[in-house]
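Observation: inputs received (chain + heme C).
Thought: call the complex predictor directly.
Action: predict_structure
Action Input:
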Amino acid sequence: MLANTIKNIKVATMLRYVFVLSSFVLVSCDSATPLYTPFPAGYGYMQNLPALQKATDEGDREIIREHGWKLWAGIMQRAENGEWPLWYSWPNTKAAFASDLETTTSNSTANASESMKSRNLDNIPEVNTPGPVYDIPRQVIDNFPNGICKSSTGATIACDGSHFLFNGDIMIPTESLSQEAMNDIREDQLYLKSTLDQLHQDKVHQIEVSQEFIVTKHMYWPVKAEGITAIPVWKNNFPTTFSGYAGYEFWDTLVGVDPSGDAVGQMRDVEFLYGVKNAAGNEPLPTVKANARVHALDNFYYHKISEADWEAFDQSDKAVLTAASYWANDQPIGVGDYLITIAMHINTKELPSWTLQSVWWSDQPDRGMYATNRPALPAAVGPWDHYLLTDSYAVPANEKGELDIAVNPYIEGVTHPIATSCRNCHVRAGWPEGKTAGFSSYQNPDCPGLLSYLTPASNCLSTLTLSDYLWIIPDRAN
Ligand code: HEC
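Observation:
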């Protein structure tokens, strides 16, 4: 627990209860937001941890991957009341890093945000993979003026909403936190730069969060109720030696999704990508077209947007969703349309060195190394086995003395080189932030290798206050 390392910054107990109480009230007045549903039993969470630790120490991927699959299937089960997956009932980074004022007024538009993608790009001094430019469509600015923010460079972007963050592209992220994770961040004031400064001044090398800390990054893709929506699918479109931009805009393999079911199984001409420019911002990117196999909605985890959902979304959520829908489908999105799960990261602190796993949708979910070790989970509802899974536990180095590649092609493809690893990047998360030696960044000049076998004890991280594998802390503290 944090108490060992951070004794001097505890919030008064009273204040803590006020906070917990007020977040509870906020949840219950929002009828479309399900009540907090903890990680369910039956999916191996916090079970047999000595065996999981042993498997990690010995690099037994079968046990590790089986655990990863179960965490993924478990977190996609329904919340107790409602249609959303249970992670949607959890607090998220928007609330966790809100200033004290915002948590009491619940004003979700006050915060100037930065798209997650541009935060990421900002932070990579050497390995720079500039991606396409997504200008916010005029209709979004006109219809949701309170959901529009300025980035630190002055660009017009959508603000982070109370349910969905702005990624700066078609993917619609949520970073959800278990209640224990939320409590750690709020009680220990890890959302404040002043706390991080103090810890660094006190020469604390590593913040340690509680064992029940779970944090996710989930990506929805917008699908129209009418017609056939095109979805790019990853087919190893770039070799691992490629170090440039590898985002989904440049995968030429598509599938279609037909909510009516009429065209399922057939080949149809589909297309996506509208109003997007090249990285220099001076030429439009072509709309991507392909003859593609049409899939049914229930090959994906999906959510149908209800009237109550739409009312519960704030202007920023609506700006994020609507911009994504214009870029994907050249149409707005609303009640009756769908959100499908395209990719998800799930990190848990079950082990001191964390469990890191990530999934993405595939039209060939039984092929290749990312399909292996999938257990039978007859009680799991939904097409969890239509996705592929990568894992990045603290296993021994491979024969090259490195970490294995572990990336999610959808999520890392738009920001990071495709030959890197969750672990290599997340272990660097820390304070103070900066791009020069002695500071924390995704590619710390002190330890440049993207697949180097790094641990919190690595020399090149020794002067930092590490934030326990959590990038959201240095990224979002204010
Ligand atoms: C090169 C760096 C990099 C790589 C590789 C990377 N991430 Fe991240 N990740 C980030 C950054 C930066 C954020 C914070 C984004 C924000 O500000 O919200 C993040 C956020 C997250 C979050 C939200 C909680 C947190 O720790 O900030 C999860 C969960 C996550 N990543 C999991 C993964 C997994 C699993 C992989 C591998 C499949 C992975 N990441 C690969 C940089 C990386």
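Thought: report the result.
Final Answer: Residues 93, 116, 119-120, 175, 215-217, 345, 347, 356, 358, 390, 392, 406-408, 412, 416, 420, 422, 425-426, 442, 470-472, 475-476 surround heme C (CB under 6 Å). Confidence is low (pLDDT under 50) at residues 1-30, 104-112.
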